[in-house]
Design goal:
62% helix; mainly alpha; 96 residues; single chain
Length: 96
């Protein structure tokens, strides 16, 4: 019996951990931006400068929308708690 060789590559993997907390919005934005944008060390200096400016702007945009998503999720949870008669718990969560 003859078999064909099968190869697969998944690319570079990385793991970032925290100690006794979740990732901050800034850390998540950095991770997302790093997945989306890479800048060659060999790029023309002018192109490289533009790429870094673009990357910084993208990171800011990602961070903004992650923060907005968190606010909206907290709002949804608090509204659901209030509907179920847990106004005190909803107020505690809002203050976090």
């Amino acid at each position: 019996m003859e078999t064909d060789k099968f190869e697969i590559s998944i690319g570079n993997l990385g793991v970032q951990t925290t100690h006794n907390r979740g990732h901050t919005v800034e850390e998540l934005a950095e991770m997302a931006t790093n997945k989306l944008i890479s800048i060659s060390d060999n790029a023309d200096p002018m192109v490289k400068a533009q790429a870094h400016a673009f990357r910084d702007r993208c990171k800011w945009i990602v961070a903004f929308y992650v923060q907005e998503g968190i606010k909206n999720h907290v709002c949804t949870i608090c509204n659901e708690l209030e509907k179920q008669g847990h106004k005190d718990l909803a107020n505690i969560i809002r203050r976090l």
